[in-house]
Amino acid sequence: MSVWSRIIDMAQSVFDPEADAPETSQECAPDPNDVGFTAAVIGLAAKMAKVDGEADEQEMSAAARVFRPPPGEEAAFRRVYTLARQSVHGFESYARQIGRKYRARPCLLEDVLDGLFHIAASDGAVDAAELAYLQTVAEHFGFSELEFRRIKATNLGPDARDPYAVLGLLPGASLEEARQAWRRMAAENHPDRMSQRGAPDAFVKIAEEKTAAINAAYAQIREELLVGAQ
Question: Is 73 buried (19+), middle (13-18) or exposed (0-12) by CB count in 10 A?
């Protein structure tokens, strides 16, 4: 029985927002066959689609590209997604559940946020309600306000006045600090690394876009600081 079929069979229990999650450790992937994680992530995606009042087919298709149900399980995925998006209620409990269990794997939690940003943007815009939802999820995942600014900027593009947010820096950081942050983030978000992890094509595309944003932010900071030093 596939994980998707198991989710359908266990729908009422795996979508229990108060379910406790045990501690674990590993790098950037959930535990094998973690049905609760899969269900909670789909729940977060589906409930976000409800935030702007319109949970449409476009957002469901984007969720399917990100979470990639296996061949033959597309209908099961749609049933799980439809069940979860009936209301926004409970999303914070889902986020807390994932955050508690995978706090030691921040790259996994950032992958989840990247996927949610991708789904939110699938209709062409991310509105204020969706941003507030995403920030709340990030807080329950344990990300700071500065870290959320960075994740937001690498997904939606930096504010022209704030390339530092893309690199997770405060304004006023030195060129050396910017260089070190750029090198670290470029390595962490390289599309080849995402491919090596066996990520779906949608995540590889996200990594390409994030890498472009990281490079552009560093180039802007470098130019500003070098010009200012002359």
Answer: middle
User: Which pair of tokens denotes residue 143?
Assistant: 């990300």
Planar angle of CA 50, 5, 59, nearest 5 degrees: 25
pLDDT by residue, tens only, the chain of 230 residues: 344 444 444 333 433 444 444 343 356 788 877 878 887 888 888 887 777 666 567 777 877 777 777 677 777 777 777 777 776 677 888 899 999 999 999 988 998 898 889 888 887 788 888 999 999 999 999 998 888 988 998 888 766 568 888 898 887 889 999 999 999 999 988 888 878 877 778 888 888 988 998 999 999 999 988 876 76
Give, in words, the CATH class of 145-230. Answer: mainly alpha
Q: Which two tokens stand for residue 8?
A: 């359908």
Q: Where are the domains of the chain?
A: 1-143, 145-230
